[in-house]
């Protein structure tokens, strides 16, 4: 009768190896699914490096020709004031005047004795933020020259920008990623695991906002990165 001992031994060894391989595969599969998803924050306060300052004044009258002459003279006075204070000509733009004919306004209940209401705007756009801020506080000097700068119109607010994001972006991403890793390491330690490699990372969007309502010339730059790390025993 033929002996099956050798075949049985080989078969048993095969089943044993198969079990080992399956177990290793399951362990590897389990390790692959173990991960932690964390966020890292980086914030920085920076001074604005660009300012847009609209100087607005009103003119009233009944004679367009006289108004034109008056506006031309007023514009020249403002330009002289700005240049005297250190603003370059290429940083100044003179807008076309906005003329409202009170009598042409069909539904107007305005009882003003003046037919024409003209809004003139001269805009300063400059990187000399501190200088412009100083001039804004000194614009009352124009009263001595016969010009009253008006405010309160939401269309003509002073605005500040930060345009040098690319200079600080690499450092902020590095800081945010570092903060994310610290959070992931804490999680791994608490779960009695070890932190593995990065599986996926999302830089996130940068946001630039005023630090607060009182200091719009100071900007807060913010970025949140999302990083997924693998975990292992």
UniProtKB/TrEMBL annotation:
InterPro entries (alphabetical): 26kDa_periplasmic_antigen, SIMPL/DUF541, UCP029033
Pfam families: SIMPL (PF04402)
Name under which the protein is recorded: SIMPL domain-containing protein
Phylogenetic placement of the source organism: Bacteria, Pseudomonadati, Bacteroidota, Bacteroidia, Bacteroidales
């Amino acid at each position: 009768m033929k002996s099956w001992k050798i075949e049985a031994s080989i078969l048993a060894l095969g089943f044993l190896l198969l079990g080992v391989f399956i177990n290793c595969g399951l362990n590897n599969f389990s390790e692959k699914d173990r991960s932690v998803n964390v966020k890292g924050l980086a914030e920085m306060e920076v001074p604005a490096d660009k300012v847009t300052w609209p100087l607005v004044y009103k003119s009233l009258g009944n004679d367009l020709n006289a108004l034109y002459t008056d506006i031309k003279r007023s514009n020249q006075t403002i330009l002289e004031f700005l240049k005297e204070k250190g603003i370059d000509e290429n940083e100044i733009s003179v807008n076309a005047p906005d003329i409202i004919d009170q009598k042409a306004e069909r539904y107007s209940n305005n009882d003003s004795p003046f037919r024409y209401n003209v809004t003139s705007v001269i805009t300063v756009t400059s990187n000399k933020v501190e200088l412009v801020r100083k001039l804004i506080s000194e614009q009352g000097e124009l009263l001595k020259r016969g010009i009253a700068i008006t405010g309160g119109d939401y269309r003509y607010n002073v605005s500040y920008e930060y345009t040098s994001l690319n200079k600080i972006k690499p450092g902020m991403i590095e800081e945010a990623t570092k903060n994310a890793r610290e959070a992931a390491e804490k999680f791994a330690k608490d779960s009695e695991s070890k932190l593995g490699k990065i599986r996926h990372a999302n830089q996130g969007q940068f946001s630039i906002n005023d630090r607060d309502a009182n200091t719009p010339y100071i900007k807060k730059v913010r970025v949140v990165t999302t990083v997924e790390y693998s975990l292992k025993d």
